[in-house]
Amino acid sequence: MIRVEDIQKHFGALHVLRGITFDVQKAEAIVIIGPSGSGKSTLLRCINLLVEPDSGKVFIDGVHVNRHGIRHEWVRQQVGMVFQSFNLFTHLTAIENVTLGLTRVKGIPHDQAIEKARKLLARVGLAAKENAYPAELSGGQQQRVAIARALAMDPKAMLFDEPTSALDPEYIREVLDVMTVLAREGMTMIVVTHEMGFASNVASRILFMDAGKIIEEGTAEDIFQNPKEDRTRSFVSKILR
Amino acid sequence: MEIAAALPLRTPPKLVTRLTVVHLVEMILAGSFMIFVVLPAIFRFSLVSASFWEIYRRFYVTGLFGTFFYVAMTLPLSVVLGFLMGWARVSRVRIFSWPSSLYVNLFRGLPPLILVIFASLFGTNLVPQPILDRFLSGFRRGDIAVGLAAIAIAMHSSAYQAEIFRAGFQSVPKGQQEAAQALGLRPWQGMRHVILPQTFRLSLPPLGNEFAVLIKDTSILAAISGTELVAKSRDLLGILPASGFPIVWIFAVWTVVALTYFVLTYSVTRGLRILERKFHTPGLEAISL
Amino acid sequence: MANWRKFLRDRWRYFDAALALAVIIGSLVYIYELLVGSRGLDVAYITRNYPLYLHAVFTNVYATTIAFVVGMALGFSVGWLRTARSLSVAKFAASMRVEKRERQEAPSGSEVTRRLLVVLSLLWYGTKYVVRRVGDGFVEIIRGTPLYVQILFASSFFIVFLPQYASEGILIGIIALAINTGGYQAEIFRAGLQTVHSGQIEAARAIGFSRLKAMRYVILPQALRLIIPPLTNEYIGLFKASTFLFVLGVQTEISYIAQHEGFAGDVFEIFAIVTAIFLAITVTLSFVVQALERRFRIPGLGIEQVRLPRGVRTARVVG
């Protein structure tokens, strides 16, 4: 479904991604863990081309996307993204946030857009809050609206960039629940997170990244219980206390 | 937005608060007290004397319309220029950010009076000859000079508005553009539907202030004999003694002028505050200049 | 093919800067051409006349400083008056009701003294309210009317009541400027005093300070740090406004421009001198402002959104 081959990225002198290669099958949910600065966020952004890799190939559904001639907007409709800081449009209500992409990118007439948006908001449990502005919602509610907004585009896969890292502890559960349901329904997803519980329950595979490289890859059992590499072992021991 | 019309409305924010009304009433009371009681008693002139207005009316109306004309001419120009300059200032492309930075610092550093005098005296030299011949040949040189001076005032105000818009752009939360891109919105769509609506909402409060300043600045045109309120009132003063009014009536003229400007600026600032409240969205922080 | 595109993208920052410089220099050269053209730069004019211009600027500085100081006294008093606190009508009515209830429970004291006290307190709060609103009104009028009109007002005052001084342009100008800056400074002082006012005076009194001592050791030091940046910005604004002295017949740099009107020769040189002078002064003063701001800044203390006459930089509310 999604395949990346030997992605390299520099930011100035900093070599952030040093040759990343992996693939994600359809309906798979993979989790990427690793220390901060290891390039996880940059990797996600290379997939939906918010950041352009210096070299390497990105394939989405068999199509080589990071080359000349492919419109970035098309790529981003195939792959949705949820951000750490939610990034809801502050001047629009919850339902307007969800319908913006439907009407302006997909060109759906607005009655249909509203209907669809309502269904999505209900799916994430926020039907009652459709007219609220982001500032009137809790962090967990905002993130769920952000997920609904991304789902509205009917993406083939979803990218989550540390979706719960900016949340107060009492709201983390509700967001993870939504994501778990999404995974069980068969959404292809790549999640960068520190939530090991979620990783163990939901992920079919876990990737451990450090300093721009994938150090180890395996199931939750493999990584958490029998890590092969030293770096993996030390990171996991710090995380799982 | 059409979408908003289809949805049930939230309780709209109160547009006119009690405080606004109280202040308005106080003002009218104090003003009337001054006009009808204090001024006639102490200074021995009255603002409501019919004979006074007989001779003043002509000058006043011409002058007032002149001021309106200049405001109508300079306000939109200054907003457009200010917005473009402000946008350019926040650009990463230095072709835009450096020249606009120079423009802003230049026009803020020079006082408007100097700009007006320069424009009126030497502005015609700066306009390319072909334009002068084709579009402006019908106008007297004096009128062109005043017009150019008005443009200079607009440019002066636009420099301050550029700073306001710049701060507006910079106050839009950073992830907004990324989120718009991630949805598949094209850059101009992101600008139109995400960035710019927020920029305008954030810029509105200081902008109202700046509009009031612009209205006041049009009075500078009187220094070069533009047709506006102050100039015309000055003309009246020339014939005032001859019409049999004691010299104290000079104050009557200037009080009327001051009152007019006050009403204009007050309505603009309060009016914009009402507009602010109408478009207010919770969560958009007030701008920091 | 792809190579030169990549080359362009890598070196973009340098091209960008170079093009920006080109645009700026290009437009400056274009203006130079328009105004000077084949005539050639009249350096002699500059060297001959710059003492005149410097003298004119000195007049401006002199007038600005005097007006600023006088305005500061005015602004401080008005600003302080505007912080006078009075009860809202609702609170007063509520306290009346409390009083009435107490009186019914424990009737004591004479009726007359009680009525007298009510009237006196009404008068006291009423006066405070009126004083505050008059101060507000003064500031609103100053800020709502153009400086030009204020100058004409002052000039008229002299013509009518003190005709012997009516030709003293500088005197009239300084008075008009002082009142103008007084209005704007009143707003600055009010904001500064109010930001510190709440709670601090009570805390100081609780420690044992008298009202005066509290003012001197607690309120003023904090208030000073808050108001110095906006005040210095106001000084710059006043300096620019002092060009209006020209309309009163005072010899400022503008008079030289106006006098040379017909002689369209040395336009660019005059333009250059005047621009250079003003930019030099405003830029220097801005640096001074920034340095002062840095020196007097207390982390966590900042002035609120003061409605300044010009959109110049202020410190933002912090904490």
What can you tell me about this protein's structure?
The complex is a heterotrimer of chains A (241), B (289) and C (319). Helices cover 38% and strands 25% of the residues of chain A. Chain A contains nine helices and ten strands. Chain A is globular and about 55 Å long. The two termini of chain A are 35 Å apart. The model of chain A has no long low-confidence stretch (mean pLDDT 88). The radius of gyration of chain B is 23 Å and the shape is flat. The longest helix of chain C is centred in the first third of the chain and has 40 residues, at 43-82. The radius of gyration of chain C is 28 Å and the shape is elongated. Chains in contact: A-B, B-C. At the B-C interface, helix 2, helix 4, helix 5, helix 7 and helix 9 of B face helix 2, helix 5, helix 6, helix 9 and helix 10 of C.
Short description:
The complex is a heterotrimer of chains A (241), B (289) and C (319). Chain A is an alpha/beta fold.
- Report the order of strands and helices of chain C: HHHHHHHHHH
Q: Please tell me the overall pLDDT of chain C.
A: 76
Distance between the termini of chain C: 56 Å
Largest sheet of chain C: none
Layout of helices and strands:
The complex is a heterotrimer of chains A (241), B (289) and C (319).
Chain A: E1 2-11, E2 14-24, E3 29-33, H1 40-47, E4 55-60, E5 63-64, H2 72-78, E6 79-82, H3 94-104, H4 110-123, H5 139-151, E7 157-161, H6 169-184, E8 188-192, H7 196-202, E9 205-210, E10 213-218, H8 220-225, H9 230-239
Parallel strand pairs in A: 3-8, 3-9, 6-7, 7-8
Antiparallel strand pairs in A: 1-2, 1-4, 4-5, 9-10
Helix pairs in contact in A: 3-4, 3-5, 4-5, 5-6
Chain B: H1 2-6, H2 18-43, H3 50-89, H4 94-109, H5 112-126, H6 129-134, H7 141-171, H8 175-183, H9 187-217, H10 229-239, H11 249-279
Chain C: H1 2-10, H2 12-35, H3 43-82, H4 89-105, H5 111-144, H6 147-161, H7 169-207, H8 211-241, H9 253-259, H10 267-296
